[in-house]
Write a sequence for this structure.
């Protein structure tokens, strides 16, 4: 068989790269669990009818069918393209077994049947947190969800040198209240046009608001002026007030956004900005909305987005409001890994290679390894009773820092320094930094 | 929307059940990494041509296609049905970046387009370890791989009360050498018929060996006699010798099996049995073969199987021999969970609910939670400034053991005992058992 070629859009990592991804996933899990989020996994497939509810995305769905399906098995299934549609279905299905507000995190692959194209992923990992209520969900959760994600991203910044982030936040109530205060009725359409402001500029947006929605120039200019407001602190409030619009929903939105900015600056300073151009095109958001940029890598687009939705799902009896934020794990780290932004201290979990003198004493080497493993030290027994030099090279090629010689009372060599010391396999421990592979920002 | 119904064959866990699965997955990962296995994930899809190489399994493949595929995108893809076919492809694709022998573990979902039927999974998680060589791979790895899996299963026995296992092992060289020593040429066909011995009995097997392969009765009886041999120690050697057959390959197989049994009894006593009826129908095994039963749950079939294969893959220049063993995680735990074999101390990661006196002091409660989290204690701030009784019930319904009252210098109540003590959020720690949800055998 010839050497297989990669499939466009289906990224795969080498072991060394996977160590970086694992470090990211472990940090996410740790943070989410510290905040009381329960892990959930949903099946990879949903009925096509579920997946096509958001009209627009239908074209990107991968359908799944049995190669030899028979007449009785014409169930139409597709691979999930996000973790929100499955969550909505799962919550309805299991609501009777859940306590609300229900906090869940979910880290899974999702699939999109995109046209093959540079930088487009057809399979990628997402990490989502959501807090779902039954009937009601307090507004303070709209502050909590983005703070949890910011905390995770900040840990990644501290631990492995992920570039810092800047989360751009807005509130749908603020924008909708503002438009309403201006006498505009179809606020969603305004939102969707203003969403293009970043790309097409102020004048074109004003024109579009006039030609498409019939807004007069003054009204359109004020809509665009609103979208141009941003501030790292609560200064945005005065700028909004200066536009001379008032509406109770606007006040509610302003107040919620103020609390979010204040709380974020208290908990994770300098990582959030009120940015009233953030609209999030999707129609289900009803309050806070979030988009996150990696500082210095803004061209990557938003790496973590989400918001408040007043109806994740409804089963006739109850409506389930929620707030959530999603991190595009693959989208975030695959380009950084490819660009060599991280270094890993070694490519394997192994900390110690136990050398083998001769095949007859392999069992002794296995005893040494068992003693070290019993205390959490990852070991391999050398695969062959080669000359010591070759066994040391086996370790060196993998970046394994230590080689053990002799029995449980033997000697351990740090192959980086050449330092070799007597050691007891029931006592010896490597330094904390050497115990596990370490991920760091590349120099 | 009406309450959705589960999809047959696609099991999903509730948060409490997922905690059990996570404990299993964490223990597997810990064990595999302690033995120096690197984690790899492969994409969920493979070209259909790859998946259909093992003729027989083709019918169970799920195909994947873009809902709106265009002319240029007629790639034929299917979901992987195991982790061995992807490994073979991945090793060939990335061989230039790997060091051999290469040790990898892989824990992922796999899919099989089975007819919907009780107890058949269409999506399930497998955990595989393999050691892959380039050109050659020493026989001692055939002992290592099953011992690593046994160690993981023994940890699960000790930690969460997974029933003990008994691994049934044989060696293809032993059987094939024996058949060869009897003058049989088509040893694979004998193996495949003898594989039915457990189901159809000795007489029917002898008859089949005669009618299908033309073996004389004495030869057929000795083939069946071989399959009936099993021993917890190395007693099987004398029983084989007593059948009066000799062949160099038989000697090699006997010797390898003796070493495996001896080593396993030394490292994980009482969990292995030489069972010469184990054949593993698949034609690619060439040495040691393993099947594992859960004691008291033998009707589940083998929960962990594998063996030695001399050619996982070949790219013309090099051949890649390997040895591996796979654990059917879902297959193992889903029935045990459904049968109530495990109990979990709580359904959420949360250890402490920080009570909220009034919405005005929510920020103080958030400070308490932040202080506790900084030292690894999972917290939630109560969602509502209800009466304390209601906030305690919020914790109680989730099995959360502690409720915190007041600020960072406050009081913490163990709601199980009712005991309430002054505590400092920068110092206080729960007991080790309470820190994380615990999984145990049900009483």
């Amino acid at each position: 068989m010839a050497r297989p070629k990669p499939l466009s859009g289906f990224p795969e990592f080498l072991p060394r790269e996977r160590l970086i991804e694992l470090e990211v996933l472990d940090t996410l899990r740790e943070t989410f669990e510290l905040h009381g989020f329960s892990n959930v996994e949903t099946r990879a497939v949903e009925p096509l009818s579920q997946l096509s509810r958001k009209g627009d995305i239908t074209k990107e769905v991968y359908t799944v069918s049995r190669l030899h399906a028979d007449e009785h098995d014409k169930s139409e299934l597709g691979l999930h393209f996000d973790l929100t549609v499955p969550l909505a279905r799962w919550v309805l299905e299991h609501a009777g077994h859940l306590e609300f507000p229900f906090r869940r995190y979910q880290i899974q692959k999702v699939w999109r049947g995109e046209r093959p194209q540079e930088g487009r992923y057809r399979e990628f990992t997402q990490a989502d947190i959501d807090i779902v209520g039954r009937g009601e969900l307090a507004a303070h959760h709209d502050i909590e969800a983005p703070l949890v994600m910011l905390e995770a991203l900040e840990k990644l910044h501290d631990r492995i040198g992920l570039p810092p982030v800047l989360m751009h936040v807005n509130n749908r109530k603020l924008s909708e209240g503002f438009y309403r205060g201006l006498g505009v009725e179809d606020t969603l359409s305004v939102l969707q046009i203003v969403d293009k402001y970043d790309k097409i500029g102020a004048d074109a947006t004003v024109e579009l608001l006039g030609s498409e929605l019939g807004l007069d120039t003054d009204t359109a200019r004020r809509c665009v002026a609103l979208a141009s407001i941003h501030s790292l602190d609560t200064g945005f409030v005065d700028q909004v007030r200066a536009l001379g619009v008032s509406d109770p929903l606007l006040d509610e939105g302003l107040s919620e956004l103020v609390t979010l900015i204040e709380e974020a600056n208290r908990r994770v300073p300098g990582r959030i900005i009120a940015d009233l151009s953030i609209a999030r095109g999707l129609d289900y958001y009803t309050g806070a909305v979030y988009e996150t940029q990696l500082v210095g890598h803004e061209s990557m687009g938003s790496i973590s987005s989400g918001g408040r939705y007043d109806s994740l799902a409804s089963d006739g009896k109850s409506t389930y409001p929620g707030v959530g934020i999603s991190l595009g794990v693959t989208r975030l780290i695959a380009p950084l890994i490819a660009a060599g932004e991280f270094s890993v201290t070694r490519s394997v979990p192994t900390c110690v290679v136990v050398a083998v003198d001769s095949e007859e004493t392999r069992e002794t080497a296995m005893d040494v390894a068992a003693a070290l493993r019993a205390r959490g030290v990852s070991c391999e027994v050398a695969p062959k009773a080669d000359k010591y030099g070759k066994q040391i090279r086996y370790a060196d090629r993998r970046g394994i820092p230590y080689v053990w010689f002799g029995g449980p009372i033997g000697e351990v060599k740090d192959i980086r320094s050449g330092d070799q010391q007597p050691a007891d396999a029931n006592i010896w421990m490597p330094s904390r930094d050497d115990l596990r592979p370490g991920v760091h920002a590349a120099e």
